[in-house]
């Protein structure tokens, strides 16, 4: 498999691009169609449901009350033309053309050429009455994300959904992260057992590509490799039985859970080894793991429904997915999202299903993000076990919190801001590395600065970070894993605190938290580090830092678009706060803040500087555009969801 196929954070679906929503508040590529909702030009209370089918270009347009559009008689009406225009703005012309299987004359795709290519075939008119209801229902579900409240407990699975600055490529790249030097990011001494554990994971992931309904002999051999890797462990007997059943195409849900547990255990061991190597590199002390607390018994019916869907995915395989199978998660997610105890699983399923839907049909995929989808599948399956993800035990924490930087995670319908910080307890015990998180559901058209607007009302720490101030905590719940369960009532803004100065002075002595057993995975490795005096090297789009004889790729693609930090300023920096991560077989750095020279002045730039609001000119423009988009969606939600 290629490096991209072995990456847990491979970018599969390009992010939606910002656009104005007044005319076309909803557009999507789903169910084999370009479809959406278009506002009426004459009546604010009326909307039209429009669609164009992939391949045949069969079109339909009617109101949500099934009244046919007078303009859609024999050819595309203005509503459909507006839908195509906005789809190109949101997804890019090339992606829309590939999805619709349209070939514009001259090869260069834009909204006009796509429309001309499709209308030139004299497409048939579809039955708008049968299409309007499901599309309008999806629009209402889209709006309902704005009605759901935030969650301030951590959602570890959002680590698999980093933001991306990358533009959509013409063809899928051969590698998500290219490195200019052989071995960049890899430690000089190999990590014992790491390659063997990952090889067993890759073997199992190959079985998920083709599916386990009728596995081929070579895939049965891959299953045996997984069983061999956990032989001698407490999982051995259950996994051996599961492998035997799966190889015969007779695996039940419990067998799939056992296989997911074996895969997770191997990656947990890899996480532990990599964390030990990172601790050796940073000289950091790590706290001891407390016994896991018993989780809450959640809604068994919803968990069972999710488990059934995930097991059907495993039987079908990634190459067998279609829109019907990918869409099977939607009603489950809709029922889970309003329940805080199920939000973690619902958010994971929603992001996973969106990637599968965007990749349909699976039979047409040239390659598959095997490790990433294997990660998402196995984590989701284990989270369907009742009690697997209950609320963590927490104790009150009082002291001073010194923010370091914010790490943003997002997929189409969810976003999480996670602030990394140093906590100085009031009782004089050693400082600790901690995190504070807030996550919110969102429509996929809320992007860039709009994401900060949804997050900031629920985490005052974001404003303190932007202002360069500390926060004083009084009895804030803090878990053994270092997560603050944030409550604004238990925090107040403190004295000025420069993040780079904090990192330079306090990071070396701060105690790192342990990791919960279920969350042990290399993707969860995100260790704050402070670097200065490094050499930078730029090779095309790839930037590396060389420090203390080690060369690390810098993942500038994870820098949020809505902020002053850019790949160019990172390349020109002389000091940096970063997260040390691991993916694609090597360590890499994710910048959170840098000290760089801009117009002959030394300036500190933070990835999350706009998270709490900004007076920066570019930031103000981004804020206004985002405000307009959210306002339109809230207005539509008010009219349609509360009737």
UniProtKB/TrEMBL annotation:
Region Disordered: start-end pairs: 154-189
Protein name (database record): SWIM-type domain-containing protein
Natural source organism: Streptomyces phaeofaciens
């Amino acid at each position: 498999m290629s490096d991209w196929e072995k990456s847990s954070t491979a970018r599969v679906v390009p992010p939606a691009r910002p656009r104005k929503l007044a005319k076309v508040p909803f557009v999507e590529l789903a169910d084999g169609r370009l479809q959406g909702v278009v506002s009426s030009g004459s009546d604010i209370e009326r909307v039209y449901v429009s669609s164009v089918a992939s391949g045949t270009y069969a079109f339909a347009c009617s109101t949500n009350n099934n009244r046919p559009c007078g303009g859609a008689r024999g050819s595309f009406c203005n509503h459909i033309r507006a839908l195509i225009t906005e789809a190109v703005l949101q997804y890019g012309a090339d992606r829309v053309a590939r999805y619709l299987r349209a070939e514009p004359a001259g090869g260069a795709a834009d909204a006009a050429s796509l429309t001309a290519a499709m209308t030139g075939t004299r497409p048939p008119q579809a039955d708008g009455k049968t299409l309007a209801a499901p599309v309008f229902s999806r629009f209402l579900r889209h709006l309902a994300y704005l009605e759901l409240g935030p969650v301030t407990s951590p959602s570890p699975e959002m680590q698999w959904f980093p933001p991306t600055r990358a533009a959509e490529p013409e063809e899928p790249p051969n590698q998500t992260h290219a490195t200019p030097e052989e071995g960049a990011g890899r430690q000089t001494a190999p990590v014992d057992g790491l390659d063997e554990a990952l090889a067993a994971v890759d073997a199992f992931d190959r079985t998920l590509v083709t599916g386990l309904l009728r596995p081929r002999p070579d895939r049965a051999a891959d299953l045996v490799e997984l069983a061999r890797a956990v032989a001698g462990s407490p999982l051995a007997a259950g996994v051996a039985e599961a492998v035997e059943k799966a190889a015969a195409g007779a695996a039940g849900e419990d067998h799939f859970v056992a296989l997911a547990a074996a895969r997770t255990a191997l990656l947990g061991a890899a996480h532990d080894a990599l964390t030990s190597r990172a601790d050796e590199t940073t000289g950091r002390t790590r706290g001891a793991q407390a016994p896991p607390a018993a989780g809450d018994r959640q809604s068994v019916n919803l968990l069972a429904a999710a488990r059934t869907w995930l097991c059907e995915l495993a039987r079908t395989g990634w190459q067998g997915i279609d829109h019907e199978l990918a869409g099977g998660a939607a009603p489950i997610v809709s029922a889970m999202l309003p329940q805080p105890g199920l939000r973690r699983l619902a958010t994971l399923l929603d992001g996973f299903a969106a990637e599968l839907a965007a990749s349909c049909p699976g039979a047409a995929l040239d390659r598959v993000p095997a490790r990433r989808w294997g990660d998402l599948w196995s984590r989701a399956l284990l989270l369907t076990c009742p009690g697997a993800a209950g609320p963590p035990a927490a104790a009150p924490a009082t002291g001073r919190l010194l923010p370091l930087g914010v790490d943003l995670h997002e997929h189409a319908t969810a976003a999480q801001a996670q602030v990394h910080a140093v906590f100085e307890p009031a009782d004089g015990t050693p400082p600790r590395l901690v995190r504070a998180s807030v996550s919110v559901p969102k429509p996929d058209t809320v992007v860039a600065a709009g994401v900060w607007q949804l997050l900031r009302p629920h985490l005052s720490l974001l404003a303190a970070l932007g202002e360069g101030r500390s926060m004083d905590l009084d009895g804030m719940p803090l878990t053994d894993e270092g997560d603050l369960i944030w409550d604004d009532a238990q925090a107040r803004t403190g004295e000025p605190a420069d993040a780079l100065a904090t990192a330079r002075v306090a990071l070396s002595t701060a105690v790192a938290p342990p990791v919960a057993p279920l969350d042990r995975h290399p993707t969860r490795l995100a260790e704050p580090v402070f670097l200065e005096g490094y050499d930078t090297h730029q090779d095309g789009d790839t930037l590396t830092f060389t420090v203390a004889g080690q060369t690390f790729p810098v993942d500038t693609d994870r820098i949020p678009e809505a902020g002053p930090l850019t790949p160019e300023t990172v390349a020109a920096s002389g000091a940096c706060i970063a997260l040390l991560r691991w993916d694609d077989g090597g360590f890499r750095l994710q910048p959170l803040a840098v000290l760089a020279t801009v117009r002959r002045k030394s300036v500190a730039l933070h990835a999350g500087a706009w998270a709490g609001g900004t007076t920066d000119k570019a930031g103000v423009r981004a804020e206004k555009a985002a405000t307009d988009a959210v306002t339109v969606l809230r207005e539509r939600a008010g009219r349609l969801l509360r009737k």
